[in-house]
Amino acid sequence: MIQKSCACANPSSLLSGEKGTALYGVLEAFFCDTNCKEIEALFDKILETCLTTDEGPFSKGEERSQLLAMSKRVLRVLEACQMIVQKERQDQK
Q1: What is the per-residue pLDDT across 6-15, written as a single tens digit (0 to 9) for each?
Q2: With contact defined as beta carbons under 8 Å apart, do 50 and 56 qualify?
Q3: At a CB cut-off of 8 Å and minimum separation 6, what does 46 contact?
Q4: Cβ atoms of 44 and 76 closer than 8 Å
Q5: How does DSSP classify residue 2?
Q6: Chain centre to alpha carbon of residue 74
Q7: Fewest CB atoms within 10 Å of the CB: 3, 18, 71, 85?
Q8: What are 38-53's pLDDT values in tens digits?
């Protein structure tokens, strides 16, 4: 089951050493050669694979609906991050 707690309270070990501008650099590097449409297409492939089988961690309807809801939330976060990076680039011009 997906926990509904604030991710800020439990930072990823991948970013635990990053601070301030280094965190922005992570976003900037990611969106340098990746866009939201590409990420969405990849998510669609992953979701299709997960949702078209009755085996594995998404075998129950509730787990599948949680996966869909989380994927939509992640895509919204990524789109917001991309917009922040684009705005920052425009502001620097």
Answers
A1: 445 555 676 7
A2: yes
A3: 71
A4: no
A5: -
A6: 4
A7: 3
A8: 888 988 888 888 888 7
Q: For residue 80, give both structure tokens.
A: 């917001």
The full DSSP string for 30-88 is HHHS--HHHHHHHHHHHHHHHHT-SSSTT-SHHHHHHHHHHHHHHHHHHHHHHHHHHHH
Per-residue confidence at 20, pLDDT binned at 50, 70, 90?
Answer: low
For CA atoms 49, 6, 23, 28, the dihedral sign is positive
Token pair belonging to 47 = 């979701």
Helix (H, G, I), strand (E, B) or coil at 12: coil
* Tokens found for residue 56: 């594995």
Residue 18 DSSP code: -
C-alpha 22, offset from chain centre: 18
